[in-house]
Amino acid sequence: MATSFTYWDDCVDLQDLEAMWEVPEVRTEWLKAGEALADIVISRHFQSKIDPSMICAIAELESDRQLLVMRSDKDPTEATLGLMQLSSKTVKWLMRLTGVYSELGYRQYGEGDEYFLFRPFVNVYFGAACIKWLSKFDNKKPVIVVRTPRNDAPEPSSKKSTDVVVASDDKYWDSRASPEDMADMWNHPEVRRHWKKSKEKRGKARFKQDENKTPYLSPVELKAVADIVLSKHFRTKKIKSTVLCAIGEVVSKRFVNGFGDHPGIMGIDYSTAYWIYLELGYRAYKLETVHDLKCPFVSMYFAAAYVAWLSEYEGRERTLDFVAQAYFVGPKKVKPQDNSPLWLNFVEALNKYEESKRYKLWMLMR
């Protein structure tokens, strides 16, 4: 059935309509309501970090400010709708981006069928949310961002990070770590002994590889990455490197590129890591694409930040069993006294790393 609106009251909530009436320009000339709509959405939800004129310009170019425009010229199977010409796929992606980790995220206007994108406040809200994300993505300037809203949710590309280069060659550590991080690895006593034994060379330290030529980290290397990241970036946090290592063992089996759907040695997904980067302010490493998470130090850094956040979830100091389970399944799905395979595997891995640590201390004291 065709969608049709005759009055503003048909397609906006009461509080939105009241906000429109409170704008002097709207009261005198509803033809200029596009500017008022952008101002209201941005001031209400985005703390004026987005220029309303950009919203208006995009709406002018994409839909000619027509509420009920629907196009499928880019993809016949995925229509774009409304003032900002957004697809339902883009909106669902934006809602997933932070919804699990933030009570609001980009869910301010709730969920509905795709026709809820014809509602002007909803459409402009998600258009502004998309612009906010794009303005952080790859450090793009607004003039570049303007040309992209009609596209679907930006998929992480294979573009290189400016801090950490992901080379196509999976053989060497140096293709997945910055010179500074590599220097820290060489200065780590256990790693230096480990690499000297395997005859690694500076600039060409090789990853271990399994029978399928899949690169992975040794337990010594994984522990060193955790030690370095914690000592440099999380000195004030009560996070143990052995806990991070045990998590890595369970979710990635120490594979550099990750295991299954979980990228990187710590298996932290891109949307979670990007939320940590954007909303929590952990920015020691740039996070531009999912490939950045396949760099051991980047993956470990964002995993440690996530563990730090989970340790104080909802303002309370949390137990280790809560933190570990929350890392695996999300903080809202933790079950007390859980004996799931993930938890049991974590405990087993943690015991191994703790025993190894105690053995090394015993050897040093001999």
UniProtKB/TrEMBL annotation:
One Pfam family linked to the record: SLT
Record domain Transglycosylase SLT: where: 46-136
Protein name: Transglycosylase SLT domain-containing protein
